[in-house]
Amino acid sequence: MDTNPYSVVALLEFLTPGRFIDVVERIALRNSGDARLRRGVTQLARLEGLTFLWVFERGNRHRLDPAGSSAC
Q1: How far apart are the first and last CA of the chain?
Q2: Helix crossing, 17-28 with 41-64: angle to 10°?
Q3: 8, 64 in Cβ contact below 8 A?
Q4: 10, 12, 20, 69: least buried by Cβ within 10 Å?
């Protein structure tokens, strides 16, 4: 199976949304300790990871089967 590196990131976001958000905050914000998460952010991160996984894997199937014979 050809694994897309973005799929790995999406899987990490889905499985460990809290840690994923912490890492992204440290990269994106100068004072990440000052930032506060709003209610529901963790659940939305899981949904985002799941959505990206679905999109990437669906794209992989179409790329591997250009005739479109697989049922999606």
Answers
A1: 18
A2: 90
A3: no
A4: 69
**Rounded-to-integer distance, Cα 9 and Cα 35, Å:** 23
* pLDDT per position as a tens digit, 22-68: 998 889 888 877 888 889 999 999 999 999 999 988 876 666 666 65
Q: How many Å apart are CA 69 and CA 72, to the nearest integer?
A: 9
CA distance 3 to 10: 12
Length of the chain: 72
Please give the model's pTM, rounded to 2 decimal places.
0.70
Q: Is the dihedral of CA 24, 52, 36, 28 positive or negative?
A: positive
For residue 33, what are its two tokens? Answer: 């300790």
